[in-house]
């Protein structure tokens, strides 16, 4: 018996590689999440940058809670069982009238994980629509093998390497993931997806939470993850603690170590060593 998703939603994930919209909090709670983020941005003088956008659930107690939120984890349990890790998180923020975009890609390409049992819960803090650069995907593309990608390191590409699939994407097949604030989509690690720029007058903010069953391992280096449900009998990842307050200095230091290690996995084979380095460095390499 599923805990949260309907049988039709589970079937849609298995068949299409993506299911949405799934409400996981009220619009008011989503607005509170946005407010918390923007309060921090106001204090620090601008949009969240560099490694602060990644593994942010180790920096902010409210995001540490979000990755453990019952509705989200119940939905993931319906897909991948009851022993679950949050492997990482990534803010995908597109400013108003900004050229930032995400090229067509499969998440699995550089993640180094041992299996394809990886799902992203993309939680909308603002609306995500065709008008503000919502995610798009090609249904059933998660059933393809790993597709070769080329690294572009394009300036406005929000992906680590600006990686893109080396095949022509048939745009007539694409579906747009329209979400209201407080809703999420779930997408498979091999799904071909991307998103265009946001020409609208407001920001589009999504928080991507990547979940794996504890049996999945990291093959590309040392790594850590947060246990969010059940038990970890495999110990493939070092266990991350949960922050109880925002920006606890111990957690800030831990986050720095972890994101540096993580960047070494994601940028392996390039000259880039951290999320904070300009992409141009790699283009010169
Ligand atoms: O937020 C976007 O537009 C793209 C997000 C994405 O590629 C992902 O969550 O894997």
Topology:
Elements: H1 7-16, E1 18-23, H2 27-44, H3 61-66, H4 70-80, E2 84-94, E3 102-105, E4 119-124, E5 136-137, E6 149-150, E7 164-165, E8 175-176, E9 183-188, E10 193-195, E11 204-213, E12 224-229, E13 238-239, H5 249-266, H6 279-284
Parallel strand pairs: 12-13
Antiparallel strand pairs: 1-9, 2-11, 2-12, 3-10, 4-9, 4-11, 5-8, 5-10, 6-7
Bound molecules: 2-oxoglutaric acid.
Question: What features would you describe in this structure?
Answer:
Helix content is 24%, strand content 22%. With 285 residues, it is α+β, with helices and mostly antiparallel strands. The model is unreliable at 280-285 (pLDDT under 50). It binds 2-oxoglutaric acid. The site of 2-oxoglutaric acid has 10 residues, from strand 4, strand 10 and strand 11.
Give a quick precis of the structure.
The protein has 285 residues and is α+β, with helices and mostly antiparallel strands. It has helices at 7-16, 27-44, 61-66, 70-80, 249-266, 279-284; strands spanning 18-23, 84-94, 102-105, 119-124, 136-137, 149-150, 164-165, 175-176, 183-188, 193-195, 204-213, 224-229, 238-239. It contains six helices and 13 strands.
Pick out its properties.
globular; alpha+beta; seven-stranded mixed β-sheet
Radius of gyration: 18 Å
C-alpha end-to-end distance: 52 Å
The count of helical stretches stands at: 6
Q: Describe the biggest sheet?
A: 7 strands, mixed
Q: Can you give the helix content as a percent range? A: 10-25%
Shape: globular
Give the amount of beta strand, in percent.
Answer: 15-25%
Give a list of the ligands.
2-oxoglutaric acid
Oligomer: single chain
On the 0-100 scale, what is the average pLDDT? 94
* pLDDT < 50 stretches: 280-285
N to C succession of SSEs: HEHHHEEEEEEEEEEEEHH
């Amino acid at each position: 018996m599923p805990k949260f998703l309907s049988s039709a939603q589970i079937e849609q994930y298995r068949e299409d590689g993506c299911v949405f919209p799934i409400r996981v909090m009220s619009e008011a709670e989503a607005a509170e999440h946005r407010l918390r983020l923007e309060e921090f941005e106001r204090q620090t003088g601008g949009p969240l940058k560099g490694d602060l956008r990644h593994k942010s659930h180790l920096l902010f107690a409210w995001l540490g809670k979000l990755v453990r939120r019952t509705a989200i984890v119940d939905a993931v349990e319906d897909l991948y069982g009851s022993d679950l890790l949050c492997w990482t998180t990534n803010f995908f923020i597109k400013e108003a009238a900004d050229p930032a975009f995400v090229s067509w890609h499969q998440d699995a390409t550089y993640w180094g994980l041992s299996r394809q049992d990886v799902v992203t819960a993309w939680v909308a803090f603002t609306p995500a629509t065709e008008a503000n650069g919502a995610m798009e995907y090609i249904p059933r593309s998660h059933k393809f093998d790993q597709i070769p990608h080329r690294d572009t390191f394009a300036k406005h590409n929000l992906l680590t390497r600006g990686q893109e699939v080396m095949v022509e994407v048939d745009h007539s097949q694409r579906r747009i993931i329209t979400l209201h604030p407080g809703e999420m989509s779930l997408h498979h690690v091999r799904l071909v997806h991307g998103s265009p720029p946001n020409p609208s007058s407001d920001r589009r903010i999504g928080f991507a939470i990547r979940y794996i069953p504890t049996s999945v391992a990291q093959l590309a280096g040392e790594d850590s993850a947060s246990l969010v449900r059940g038990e970890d009998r495999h110990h493939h990842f070092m266990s991350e603690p949960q922050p109880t307050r925002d920006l606890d200095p111990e957690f800030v230091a831990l986050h720095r170590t972890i994101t540096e290690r993580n960047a070494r996995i994601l940028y392996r084979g390039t000259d880039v060593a951290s999320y904070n380095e300009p992409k141009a460095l790699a283009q010169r390499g």
